[in-house]
Design a protein that fits this description.
It is a single chain. With 47 residues, this protein is mainly α. The chain has 2 helices and no strands. The longest helix has 25 residues, at 12-36.
């Protein structure tokens, strides 16, 4: 790796990946709602 600086904290690299993973989780949550007919809270036993 050419860039040896650490990438911790609120940097653009971390925020980009955080946003991508949040979008992926949201889409997976919606897909499981459609497939099971239950809401996300109902699936984990809270609703």
């Amino acid at each position: 790796m050419a860039d040896s600086t650490t990438r911790f904290g609120f940097v653009a690299f971390a925020e980009t990946w955080n946003g991508r993973l949040a979008m992926l989780g949201f889409v997976i949550g919606l897909a499981t709602e459609v497939l099971t007919g239950q809401g996300i809270l109902g699936q984990i036993g809270l609703g």
